[in-house]
Amino acid sequence: MNPLKIIIVDDEKRIRNSLVNVLKLHYPNVNIVAEADDVTSAITAVKKHSPDVVLLDIKMPDGTGFDMLKQLMPLTFKIIFITAFDQYAIQAFKFSAIDYLLKPVIPEDLVNALQRVVQQLDIENSNTKLDVFMSNMSDLTRDKKKIVLNSHDKMHIVSLNEVIRCEADRNYTQFFLFNKKSVLVSRPLKDYDDMLSEFGFFRCHHSHLINLEFVDRLEKKEGGILVMKDGSEVLVASRKYTELIAALHKF
Fold first, then answer.
1. Would you tell me how many other CB atoms lie within 10 Å of the CB of residue 106?
2. Domains of the chain, first to last
3. Before 104, cis peptide (omega within 30)?
4. Which residues of 42-68 are buried (b: 16+ CB within 10 A; e: fewer)?
């Protein structure tokens, strides 16, 4: 396989040097074709070198990584964001299924991210994910929020207000949608519990995460059963019963 052509974009020379050293030591099958320290030089480098991957910082002296990407759309390369902790941006990364690494970068995490890039060199998906990311960054309200769900053969863009419930299936999660479709995703339910809990979703059972908006009624038999508006029934764990009642009253 030909080496991956990589451009590193970060305004700190120290960070760029660190990434170069990590790549040389832990992922030698790369060709670092350029480095850039701001939006202007990054755009010039991308147009000149046509990289496979750009390692991209968010904040730079003359703008942001997003400013750079907007000027280069549609993208012809994959992106791995390298960023300091920013809860708002990280939430949007997770919902959009975009790769990001936190500074200081752990070598193993960078290698894993590059391996995912090699397996998924689908530029069309990158553009779609970036569109979702930009939308989520501009408006994180529940009604307009979207999530990227990757099944084994497709990428689904789903609004949160379409999701009725999620159900654990070993290390997979089944999403049940308002249009009576379902999507099986190869990520555990815990990931989505962490992601969706502040947007009106409630983990009522170790195997079930429900959208409170779609609860039709709570039946008190057998310790508690939620009947959803699509007619499906969901068990309520006894330890979650009181917390669920409180959540339903608040919603």
1. 12
2. 4-138 (3.40.50.2300), 143-250 (2.40.50.1020)
3. yes
4. bbebbeebebbbbbbbbebeeeebbeb
Q: How far is CA 220 from CA 163, 193, 225, in A?
A: 24, 24, 6
Residues paired with residue 159 on neighbouring β-strands, in sequence order: 146
Instruction: Classify 122 as helix, strand or coil.
Output: coil
Name the token pair of 37: 């320290």
Threshold 0.85, pTM exceeds: no
pLDDT tens for the chain, 251 residues: list them: 688 999 999 999 999 999 999 999 999 889 999 999 999 999 999 999 999 999 999 888 998 888 898 899 888 888 999 988 677 677 777 777 678 888 888 999 999 988 887 776 555 566 677 777 766 666 555 556 888 898 877 888 899 999 999 999 889 999 999 988 999 998 999 999 998 998 899 999 999 999 999 999 999 877 789 999 999 999 999 999 999 999 998 87
- Rounded Cα distance between 158 and 243, Å, is 28
Q: Are 249 and 202 in contact (CB under 8 A)?
A: no
Cα separation, 171 vs 185, whole angstroms: 9
Measured between alpha carbons, how far is 14 from 132 in angstroms, rounded to an integer? Answer: 32
DSSP-assigned beta bridge partners for residue 146: 159
